[in-house]
Structure to design on (324 residues):
């Protein structure tokens, strides 16, 4: 079975962590983030995986190779300009359209949602597309999806605090019938799949809703990246992730943190609720809490993107507070 991981974004909300690599290549639970997503797909029998690339594509290729380490065969397709979701799908038409349904998933997710059950919903309802949804009881700022008797009927804005009922949100996982290619405008950049579904619904096409209560995390910001890492580590009975070549000296205190490759934490230092990027050195008696840190040499002379974290230079590091 075939699948596509959407991985062409800039990852600006993850800045400064994405200063030296693109979002799919950032470390997550012992492998690149997109490798984690590929392993998820492989568990359900998806071994042919298309990965669209744009920003710093070589960092993804270097981190992932051919995908065999993650149980998949990767087919990379580069976009000279970002095409948006439906444009990216259309651009990969030759790799996805073998006459069978295929899965499209955002490359910034960590989840255990049962794809087999979602595929069964898609096959049973013979839908043009099936969107995997989940309840949003906390009313986080995700667009709502309106359904009726198992069909998607429309899309709304962010849920209001006093809105009755429990809103549903899109997980970024969808199953598509190849017929969808007939509805995607050719050569349209930054065209969203939602823009395809709304007129399709108006013409009577069935867009099915598969509602799941599986675990689901979205890693689009530094705070979500850290909190998701901590949640998954807690399930393994630990609270620190260490990349290759990283060392914590005796009498240093490190808790609830993610340390990338070749990090050094000196004796007497204290680190809590932090993400330390590759090659960062934390000096003796230095205290870091609730911050993202990269090497200063990477950030000097670089203007943070509008949605990136703002920070300051401290010795050999660039330190950016993680907002609550």
């Amino acid at each position: 079975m075939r699948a596509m991981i959407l991985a062409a974004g800039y990852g600006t909300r993850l800045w400064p962590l994405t200063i030296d690599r693109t979002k799919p290549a950032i470390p997550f639970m012992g492998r690149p983030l997109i490798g984690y997503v590929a392993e998820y797909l492989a568990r359900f029998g998806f071994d042919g995986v298309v990965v669209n690339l744009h920003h710093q594509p070589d960092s993804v290729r270097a981190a992932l190779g051919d995908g065999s380490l993650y149980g998949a065969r990767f087919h990379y397709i580069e976009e000279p300009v970002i095409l948006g979701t439906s444009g990216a799908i259309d651009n990969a038409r030759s790799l996805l359209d073998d006459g069978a349904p295929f899965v499209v998933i955002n490359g910034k997710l960590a989840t255990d949602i049962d794809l087999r059950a979602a595929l069964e919903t898609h096959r049973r309802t013979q839908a043009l597309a099936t969107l995997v949804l989940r309840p949003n009881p906390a009313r986080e700022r995700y667009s709502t999806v309106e359904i009726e008797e198992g069909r998607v009927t429309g899309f709304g804005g962010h849920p209001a605090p006093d809105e009755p009922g429990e809103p549903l949100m899109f997980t970024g996982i969808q199953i598509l019938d190849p017929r969808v290619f007939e509805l995607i405008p050719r050569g349209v950049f930054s065209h969203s799949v939602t823009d395809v579904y709304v007129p399709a619904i108006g013409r009577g096409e069935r867009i099915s809703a598969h509602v799941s209560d599986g675990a689901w995390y979205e890693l689009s910001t530094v705070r979500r990246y850290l909190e998701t890492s901590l949640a998954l580590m807690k399930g393994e009975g630990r609270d620190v992730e260490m990349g290759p070549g990283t060392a914590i000296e005796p009498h240093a205190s490190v808790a609830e943190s993610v340390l990338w490759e070749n990090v050094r934490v000196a004796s007497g230092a204290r680190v809590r609720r932090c993400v330390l990027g590759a090659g960062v050195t934390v000096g003796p008696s230095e205290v870091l809490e609730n911050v993202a840190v990269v090497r200063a040499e990477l950030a000097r002379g670089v203007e943070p993107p509008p949605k990136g974290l703002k920070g300051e230079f401290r010795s050999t590091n660039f330190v950016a507070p993680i907002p609550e």
Remarks:
- The mean pLDDT is 92.
- The CA atoms of residues 138 and 166 lie 9 Å apart.
- The chain has two domains: 2-218, 222-321.
